Amino acid sequence: MPKLVNHEERRRQLAEAAWRIIRREGMEGVSVRSVAQEAGMSLGSLRHYFDTQSELLAFSMKMVSDQVNARMEALEFTDHPVEDIERFIGELMPLDDERHTEAEVWLAFSVKAVTVPELQKLQEEVHSALYEGFTKAIYYLAARGMLKEGVDQRAEAMKLHALVDGLVLHHTTRPEQVSREDIAGLVSSHVRSLLQ
Amino acid sequence: MPKLVNHEERRRQLAEAAWRIIRREGMEGVSVRSVAQEAGMSLGSLRHYFDTQSELLAFSMKMVSDQVNARMEALEFTDHPVEDIERFIGELMPLDDERHTEAEVWLAFSVKAVTVPELQKLQEEVHSALYEGFTKAIYYLAARGMLKEGVDQRAEAMKLHALVDGLVLHHTTRPEQVSREDIAGLVSSHVRSLLQ
Known about the structure:
By secondary structure, chain A is mainly alpha-helical. Helix content of chain A is 73%, strand content 0%.
């Protein structure tokens, strides 16, 4: 049987089953048992793919960031740096159903990470990678002489990162108060406020 | 016995026991049983104070916002509107251990709220109250003629709210990457960037 099915594909199916449970019941609904059931698989079969619940959780969490990364890497640079940066940031924001799921699930994993070392490590890596991405975005504008004079680049990278995460948090938890248009518009106007 | 102990005080002790479990084990460690044990009380005694687990959770969550509100209400306005606003926002931020606990516990409740209607309602109320607070802060500056011309007050209130929550999230989950000084400094410089 293992020869007929794609091992990685099965792992992804199990991770997606975990995402569905998280969205429906919250993180505390997730167990190896409930994930196996959600994926229509026996607990014994699940054990072929994940030895422990932490391993399943870490893989499911990593799949969120891999998915976002893949989209970011597919982005191409153009002659319009501001729009490039908006598209880069847009991949992180819940602007369609796929990204909304990612944001909701990522948030649940981030909170879970406080008590699960494997997830904490991943969250730390992703936080650092994103901070680096925001830093590059600010440098990108600076290198083209587009940035306002006297801008503190480290502070602005940290601020843009926090603003984006705050907006994602607000739209994900309170979509009727903070809309998709609000968050896209605020990021866009913020990036433009940095230009000279 | 009920005559000798203060009913509200007991409820608060149980809520604080729930906070400790959340900080130590995450939300999924919380049950009426674990909270009773943490508070050194029998399950039967806990039932005198809370009929259901949801009621216990809602009370514990509300206690966070009540505590923050009480501090905010105690703030007095001075002749320095910018410093007043910084103090108001400071009460929401994890700038000391008490506020760090509040931020960590609030975050866990916010994620739990996605699947628990009682918590969702409270989270919605608090989000609205805070948004109103940020709106008032912007108006406060506008009414004194301190705000830059052409500032979109609704957008700036929403942005300030998201920035503060994003910074709280980053410091709470990644204190070694985003320090207390960083978040206090970024809020301060942001508020000042709105002034003319």
